[in-house]
Amino acid sequence: MNLKLDTSTVDVNEPITSIPKTHQGYCYFIVQDELNIAVRPSLPFWINEISTNYYGLSNSVIGSATALASRYFEKPLISDLSSESIYDYLNTFMWQRIPTQTLTELFYHSTISATFPVDAVPMPSVDDPVKLELLDLFNSFDDEDLDTDIAYHLTNALNNVIKDNGKQVIRIIAKLINQHEINDNMIYETLRAIGRIEDENTKIDRFEILLGSLRDQVAIIRDGAISGLSFLDDKKALPQLRILLEKETVPTLKENIKVAMKDLESG
Amino acid sequence: MPYFLRAISNNTKWDKTQFPTWLSTDDLPSCIVRDLRVDDNALSLWEIPDEETNLPQIITAIASTRKSLKSDFDYALLNTSYIDQINFTSSSEVGETPYSEINSYHRNLSNLSINKLVYFAHLLCKFGIFRRMGWKEKKTLLLDAVKNKNLNLKIVPGELKQQLGIST
Questions:
Q1: ipTM score here?
Q2: A90, A228, A254, A259: which sits with the fewest CB atoms below 10 Å from its CB?
Q3: A30 C-beta neighbours (distance < 10 Å), count
Q4: Which domain range does residue B146 map to?
Q5: Does any CB of chain A come closer than 8 Å to the CB of residue B72?
Q6: Is there a contact between A146 and B9 if contact means CB atoms under 8 Å apart?
Q7: Domain assignment of residue A89, given as a range
């Protein structure tokens, strides 16, 4: 797919130097209905980070990303494509997290990099009480034979911790998963639980964790993410699942991806 | 030939491409024992005719005993001929699911020694057909069964009824 860049608005070969240094480098496209762009070096944004730390907008994944983009693009950057096509295209970029130095690269490069969004978040201290609570919870379930009923209780327990402590729990869970601080089976069950939780306030953050885990080296963790996305029941996961279906080498997982896509497509 | 169905926790664990590298050829990882939990030395199976005509009902029956709606249903099918050829004891024992009409398809592989269980695991790994049904398809089956009054709702877990939006 080729995207048409509106060159009347910007110099496409200009290095993106006037963006603050901490936001140069890798591109990260926020999943949202309206497409906007934010960049930062080597690490993508956490959505919370944009909304709370960078521009300090209270609502504002969309607002902050727009603000960053609008510094450069006074009118739409991309034209001649349907919103759906652009969305699919940008989802591919999000998946691949492609490094860029110029606006041209931003739209026409082929280099691939992979980082996990939670790397942008400082690791909670060893004695962070919420982290300790989560580790206790995971340990308490670790001895269990995690059949579907026990997994149901794990979901409820995680849900309660999130209700009590808010979004920071999601960040900590993401770190625990990304750094494999809990074992693979528990990560698998946690990803599924993350998909089951009914909480609009943390839905985007949970979606991000699941997307990131689709690229894990461990098959069962990818499987947990596949199921989690199916349980989360958001069609925005479909482009990533399509990409994974093409890349996946484990036969059983390929079938499981098809099952998850069928569930998501069924509305 | 008909099949035996065994519900399993996760089909990926049975994928040979995912077996640990330290495992010797023709051996199996011990973690799959979890999917072969026995009760009174008997393994619970369900009989499926070769046309698989009762497969949706059997999945519905098993799913109706579980608390979580948002769970995939992973299962393995093994041609009954593998069981019949060797010295396994297969017996009918009426199932205890809320789907009474389907409970007669329940079988027990009984008098299982450790050696026989391991042998069964090898059979399943080598000849089994591993599948997954997604949670939405499962939900549709459950709701259809409720609508058609196939399930005894008194013994369906309350958590599942709540997620299905059933007040009874």
A1: 0.94
A2: A254
A3: 23
A4: 3-164
A5: yes
A6: yes
A7: 4-115
